[in-house]
Amino acid sequence: MATMLPTPAKKPRNDEVSIIILTRNSAGTLRKCLKTVIREKPGEILAVDAQSTDETTEILKENAVRILVDPYRSLGYSRQLGLLSATSRYVMFVDSDVELTDNCLTLLISDLENNDWVGVHAKLLSAGNSSYWENCQNEIYMRYYGIPGPRDRIDTICAMFRRDILLKVGFDPHFKESAEDIDLCRRLRANHLGLGASAAVAYHQHRLSFVDFARQRFRNGIGVARLSSKYGRRTILNPLIAAASQTIRSLNPRQWKMILFWVANGTIEFIGTLYGVGRIARSSLSINAKDARSEK
Asked: Which residue, of 148, 169, 204, is where some domain finishes?
């Protein structure tokens, strides 16, 4: 009787990956990003550009990247446009200030398949660490993505997903500035779909100055406002609750340097949340007023 040999595991193929890069005046970091992406030999590279006015589109054309235009300038819309336009088995979102390391795609595909996850995020390391704000952000990412394993939520800074499942869930275009990934993961987990962190490494250009850090956190706050509108008002206080919790945890000799970071993070994000709530309220009033006029 012939001995049945086990079927060898399918070797991950990078050409089964569509890489999607969102751009808007990204010329400063895009060349380095594309160099590492092209080196990984994905099946296709798409860029969703939000009407850049610098050399971004020229750099994309030089590297034969397929360009899609987002006239709406919404992160949720841009990611959905890239997802719908991709043709490969896997889709990978890579921010324009990210640099991939060798075999990054292969490791991410293996993690998706071996763990039966729908999405997996690379381990993020700082590309610089030359400022206080950069150092603190690097520590946060290392805490969350430093050890491979399951996660309740992942970012879309450098993340791979199964395209067929992601198409069924999709991105919400109402998330304009941020939190489109939080909303996505919330809906994925509601459907009991697994997410995780990988040992695959990518380098990210964290916010170098306080001004850049503050702008990002303010936009994050606007995203929190959108989340609160969609899921419940209690979400509005999340930035302050998280900042208070993390500040208390930082009251020890090894973590005291993080106190300023968490106070600034929570304060600015909460201000952004209040601004976002006001903007949503004004938009709703405007829509109601138009509906009222149309009924007359």
From this structure: 204
